[in-house]
Amino acid sequence: MxxxxxxxxxxxxxxxxxxxxVETTPDTLISLTTGRKIMVLEEMDDVIxxxxxxxxxxxxxxxxxxxxxSVFEG
Length: 74
Known about the structure:
Layout: E1 2-5, E2 11-14, E3 19-24, E4 28-32, E5 37-40, H1 44-58
Antiparallel strand pairs: 1-2, 3-4, 4-5
């Protein structure tokens, strides 16, 4: 999740995994895979940096896999 600021000054949190593309029109427009679009005050490069940092942080935490005691075993 990344924090961004809408044009009205209100901060919101966006699921970075849902970002499809970011463009400057001249405001920064974030388009999500859901079809929703959000105009924000941050520059395009800042949104990209935040999304990349989020993804890098998400890789730190390993995803549990099978083995003894796995919730996937009966």
